[in-house]
Structures
1.
Amino acid sequence: MDTKLKNYPLGVYTFEKIRNGNYFYVDKTGYVYEIANKYNYVFLSRPRRFGKSLLVDTLQCYFEGRKELFAGLKADELEKDWVKYPVLRFDMSSIKSMNPQEVKSSLSLMIGEYEKVYGRNEMEVTLGNRLEGVIKRAYTQTGQKVVLLIDEYDSALLKVMHNKPVFEELRDMLRNFYGPIKICDSMLRFGFITGITKFSQLSIFSEINNLTNISMLPDYDGLCGITKDELLTQCKPDIQALADKLRCSYDDAVSKLTENYDGYHFSKGDDGVMTDVFNPFSLINAFSARDIGQYWYSSGTPTFLFGEMRKHKEELQDIEGRRLNEDGFNISPETAESALPVLYQSGYLTIKAYNTISGIYTLGFPNKEVKNGFLKGFLPQVSNLPSQMGSNMLIKVVDALYADDIDTALTEIKAYIAAIPYYYENKTEPAFQTIMYLILTLLGQNMRVEVPFAVGRTDAILETTNTVYIIEYKVDKSVEESLKQIDDMHYADPYLADPRRKLKVGINFTTESRTIESWKSVEVK
């Protein structure tokens, strides 16, 4: 086939450049038109690198009346009067500092750029006063109401969530900055605010009476990201090029993309049918590289999420399958009693199911890329050991298991756990369970942990080409007890007809040595 495809907008977040540069683009302008003409003020929460900044830039181009950029797109069909409005746009993600004074200086510079255009009253001293003055002068000078776009409003706050004094100072500063939104309501045509979380104590939410949160409305599931329908109808040449490079069928390429990048659901759906959304950043990178990789997770480490999990004492192995009601999604991080809302808002958990009778949502990892990336990032957090050390251990364990050498595999795991510093918390049964959950889960797609059976669940099942390992571990007990549980609960029964070798593996940890004390493997006859 002809392998010359369209350009992929890697690192490109401006609508103008995408349109003029013949870049890959999935038309979202129908949403832009609807939102701009249906609401006064809108808040949208989506994970990082999900297309929020491009959406904000598209809104800016729309309100600036740049009709030529929309030729052939849905908005051009819908819009009859292309009016040019004054647009004030603030990209909070461009502020990299966590120092409140440096954040204030950055905001001052942003406002200063608009003061160069619309002027400044020297009596306006605070950030809020200055923004209010710019809005008033822009309205007076142009004769048009002002459009206010705030991208990643919570970027600075997320960086200091666990530093309470700095967090409170930044929060108060931003409350002052956002204050004019309500004061200037009569002069504002439209306001659009994006972010990851919803900090309830900011005036941006408490003072705007008609702010509409569209984050979980079924009509806007596909506003950011690429839906399954869009993938299959607009990305056929890209999928085929990927399939050719991977030497697999078109359908296999779709399956690989789905397994790794699909699975996001941002609402309960219509009549219980949820819209499948792919991570656009990973999808475009996969098309560009013509390879399956961990693109989204590798682009940023969720350090603040690990802090949230420690703060709320969340057990990693228990976060999948947890449930929330609708109110639980809107809880602010500073008042939340669990890490679930921020894990969802950040894109590390998503909606897996919705019960129409109880109104309860079930959460889980959206896909393989996110789950594996998150677990790999979490392993150094619970072991206090370098990430490379964990990676090396996993490689050796996988090699040993596929060579049918369970003793070498467990020796490597034992050495890794034994290296955890004595002052670190790894001497309780939950701590051992978390570390083993991480290690076993990260071994690969043929490893299943916490596997349910008719009368219980075993700790892990690993299937290789030649062997099925049925694994059970105990703390401060004995390997015999582990093996006895496998027998008593009949964990091996589903594999009795399997022609592969079957091994029961009992493992015992001790809190005294703080690692694996002993293990024993017995072949199932």
2.
Amino acid sequence: MRGPVAPRDPEKNRDFYYLTKDKEMFAFPTPDGKGLTPIYLDGGRLIEASKFVGNLTDESIIDMLRTASGFKKLVHSIGVTIEGCDRDKVCNFVFQFYGKNDTLGGGTMLEMPVKCDGSEHCLDLSQIDLTEEDKEVGQIRFEYDESGFTARSCVKIYLNDGYTAPKQDEDAPCDLTSPVFAEYVKQSVTQVGNTYRFNKALQKAKDGKDTYVAFIGGSITQGAGAAPINTECYAYKAFKAFKKLAGDGDNIHYVKAGVGGTPSELGMLRYDRDVRNNGEIDPDVVIVEFAVNDEGDETKGVCYESLIRKILKGKNNPAVLLLFSVFANDYNLEERLSPVGEAYDLPMVSLKSCVTEQFYKTKETGRVITKAQYFYDVFHPTNTGHTVMAMCIEQLMKDMAATLSAEDTDYSKVVSPKGIDFEDVMLFDKKDKPVEAVIDEGDFDETDADLQRAEMNLDIEGTAQFPYNWKFNAAKHGALQKPFKMDITAKRLLVINKDSADPNVGKADVFVDGEFVRTIDPHLNGWTHCNPLIILNDTESKLRHVEIKMAAGDENKSFTILGFGVVE
């Protein structure tokens, strides 16, 4: 259900808490030439934002935020303020519940015009009725008639009578230039490591030779939370810091290859395509950021180490810097991944070591930046947070420049802490076939264009991920279908599938050498997303026969194979 709800005057005497406070937003361009800023609140993000922005601690109230019905019982109205851009602009504010069966299309959707002049408009929830399909608060978004500008938003959650919100403290401006914060930044450098490769790259840049500084990771590397995403992200700011250190020449080039929601298991498949541009680029410095994404790595560290080794073996002997970002709930996988850095004597930066401890201090006892100032949402940094990340990388680079290692580490003698099974993995899709294979695509004969997109390098418009794919379209073929078949020589194989929230997308079964391997369910992640999965992990390279077909009961639905990862 979608419908406007008349805006009300600002609530004067009603308890409220901030869901967003002075949040920096960017109007991303949409295919129709308009602008959009989405803020996702599903999967616990509403609760985490309510805690660290709104100071919410009452567990009975927090529990009500888990469901649409609980939210409706708790919340009277939503106050929205937008400023920082043209005062005459009018934004369409959309509040959306996600559906139980149809995530994006099944829930109640409300909208309200908001003038971008700093005045508050209130979306009244007391006059709407939910449906049985409404599951949880899914997202809020800001829709504009044009794109490419920044603004700031405040969103207040006004509570119904009988519920009490905590005191809403106004954050003092954070001083990132203070001596106190300088010490926190120094703490972020957990290991300088062997500096031979980095200083060689730094000298190369100073000598005026073409030098490439690359970043690979998940959505934080993509720039999520930064406004605008291309120039306010930590990667670009850290690149600028390297340029300053090296003399700021035009010979120093920037490569950003972050894709949201993906682990190093996909990063190792994307490296040659997205960082090396299929062999046209050989980077000199590579910053790797997967510390908050790698819970999705099936190998629990093998793919991460394989990616590190794949990079280290590069033509230019690139320097590898490990970056460990952190979520608002203090989560990351630094403990799992840092042993790789220790084994290879790699430089490492920990945002947890920089900001997390001081989050829980007071201004008087040493807090410089609050969670609300650092985090855009529960996962991603604000512009200020991205600046902090870049400051920590810059500190590491300065420390490395001041520490000269006489010779490179002999990586061939490193005892692997996790495993290197996939260091030679290659991406295989409909366009690029680095090894010979016989393919019978069967009824997987379409190309899916509705794909996850990511802003690469300095681009502001997203690039479609894995566009050379194989799609089965049930509307075209019906239930009597021919499976996808491939004969290929390999000892290890991964399949990359497209996840989706679309109820018309179904599960598929994978068979290798006639044996059932796994059923792939594209709905587990619940959004348009690239998902790598291992379907073969053997020690012997031989001819393999792969079949993929729709699972029983889902023959009337669609499925997309984005590509494969192959180790010969």
